[in-house]
Amino acid sequence: MILGERMASALRGGEVITLRAPLAAGKTVLAKGIARGLGVTDIVTSPTYTIVSEYAGRLQLTHVDLYRIDGEEEYDQLAVNELIDSGTVVVIEWPERAGTYLPEGVLAVEITIEPNGDRTVNLPGALTPSREDGTRP
Ligand SMILES: Nc1ncnc2c1ncn2[C@@H]1O[C@H](COP(=O)(O)OP(=O)(O)OP(=O)(O)O)[C@@H](O)[C@H]1O
Ligand SMILES: [Mg+2]
């Protein structure tokens, strides 16, 4: 996934990226692209059943899917926020499930599905990779 790879090039470690989007919008596909861009060679699966998966690459990647958690306290118990200072990049699908437990300062990505099936991805500035001349696309 080319967009995810380009987003990955802007990452330095310690970022929390939330992917907010309707069911089957492409969150996992985007997470796989970020993983590829970070040089993760393991196969990134949909983490729905495992909730938290960790991968090694140029930076460590922690892929979190909160779809099946049972209330926002379960997010707190997963101790994802405690990982952030370790320098891992955290990508969270279904961040709305974490409610008030989400950390401050997340990079919030939103994917919307257009009526014709196209996807529109809204990126925060920090994830919009610079061109080689330093300008943003
Ligand atoms: N940019 C895109 N344009 C069109 N289809 C896409 C795009 N990205 C992903 N898809 C398709 O959408 C389907 C769901 O993708 P994916 O599993 O990444 O969604 P998801 O948002 O993670 O779903 P879930 O809500 O179950 O976690 C896949 O079949 C994928 O091929
Ligand atoms: Mg998914």
Overview of the molecule:
The protein has 137 residues and is an alpha/beta fold. It has one domain: P-loop containing nucleotide triphosphate hydrolases (Rossmann fold). The chain is built from three helices and six strands. The longest helix has 11 residues, at 27-37. It is globular. Adenosine-5'-triphosphate is lined by residues 21, 23-29, 46, 67, 93, 119.
Morphology call: globular
Number of helical segments with 4 or more residues: 3
What name does the CATH topology carry? Rossmann fold
The second-level CATH architecture is 3-Layer(aba) Sandwich
Binned strand content: 15-25%
* Global structural class: alpha/beta
Question: Any key phrases for this structure?
Answer:
137 residues, alpha/beta, Rossmann fold, six-stranded mixed sheet, binds adenosine-5'-triphosphate, binds magnesium ion
Task: Give the helices and strands, then pairings.
Elements: H1 2-9, E1 16-20, H2 27-37, E2 52-55, E3 61-65, H3 72-78, E4 89-93, E5 107-113, E6 119-122
Parallel strand pairs: 1-4, 1-5, 3-4
Antiparallel strand pairs: 2-3, 5-6
